[in-house]
């Protein structure tokens, strides 16, 4: 979705009370390759509270999706493995659960909406069976009741004619309808946390806005936390309460959405914003791209991973990896240039 970044942000900036629903601490996920170990998630930490929308932003290969898959322990082993860290969900470390215990969490207390619904839906099963499967799996409800609930869920996500759609197959749906079915499946067991991984990538702009409005509205009504994984800063400006910016598997900046847009502190964050068109900007002014390519994760430089692409980098940046540190009440940045 190539929506322009708008100065008016809808996210709530105030700190929410109570303990975080999800607390990720020093998470490290690696993959074994022919060129050696690749650290796709490198000591990542963040919190999400009930009712909050957290956006995780970055270019392809920054570690966003691997972070999400790590939360649900969906990293294929081999070649991947979660090496260390904690994933505390409602006070319980998900990394310490048995396979049976984590299966009871997936699709039940934590649901994930994947990037491409056509590859996530089974073409041989009706949409109603797939939407209702989490209810059957986690609640033990008989299929007759499950299909009635699936029809109701399709209605909740504003699917036209849910009575007919419940018996249809994925190939009979448009891209927007398939994504609505995925959202209905995610909501089936009233999860406390919804993770949406680029949920509108394959959709046209009008449908993208409808799907994102629907997803946030349903999450807020249920007081569910929402993690929105995206590369689109227009989406972030409109929907996020807080933002985590990732680069080369690391968190380089995190802040409330309003503060991040008002004063981005990391050169990478500023570069992302400068490369997006604005409604209130000079239409004759050229966009400023970030030069270069994302780094090879198997051969990262010793210092800041962004230094080879950063026009402000110093020798210190190239030799020393900056830690993530506070530059405000809820604003953290990993940059040696920020005092």
Automatic annotation (TrEMBL):
<dbReference type="GO" id="GO:0055085">
    <property type="term" value="P:transmembrane transport"/>
</dbReference>
<keyword id="KW-0813">Transport</keyword>
<dbReference type="GO" id="GO:0016887">
    <property type="term" value="F:ATP hydrolysis activity"/>
</dbReference>
<dbReference type="GO" id="GO:0015833">
    <property type="term" value="P:peptide transport"/>
</dbReference>
<dbReference type="GO" id="GO:0005524">
    <property type="term" value="F:ATP binding"/>
</dbReference>
<dbReference type="InterPro" id="IPR013563">
    <property type="entry name" value="Oligopep_ABC_C"/>
</dbReference>
<dbReference type="InterPro" id="IPR050388">
    <property type="entry name" value="ABC_Ni/Peptide_Import"/>
</dbReference>
<dbReference type="Pfam" id="PF00005">
    <property type="entry name" value="ABC_tran"/>
</dbReference>
<keyword id="KW-0067">ATP-binding</keyword>
<keyword id="KW-0547">Nucleotide-binding</keyword>
<keyword id="KW-1003">Cell membrane</keyword>
<feature type="domain" description="ABC transporter">
    <location>
        <begin position="22"/>
        <end position="273"/>
    </location>
</feature>
<dbReference type="InterPro" id="IPR003439">
    <property type="entry name" value="ABC_transporter-like_ATP-bd"/>
</dbReference>
<dbReference type="Pfam" id="PF08352">
    <property type="entry name" value="oligo_HPY"/>
</dbReference>
<dbReference type="InterPro" id="IPR017871">
    <property type="entry name" value="ABC_transporter-like_CS"/>
</dbReference>
<protein>
    <submittedName>
        <fullName>ABC transporter ATP-binding protein</fullName>
    </submittedName>
</protein>
<dbReference type="GO" id="GO:0005886">
    <property type="term" value="C:plasma membrane"/>
</dbReference>
<dbReference type="InterPro" id="IPR003593">
    <property type="entry name" value="AAA+_ATPase"/>
</dbReference>
<comment type="similarity">
    <text>Belongs to the ABC transporter superfamily.</text>
</comment>
<keyword id="KW-0472">Membrane</keyword>
<dbReference type="InterPro" id="IPR027417">
    <property type="entry name" value="P-loop_NTPase"/>
</dbReference>
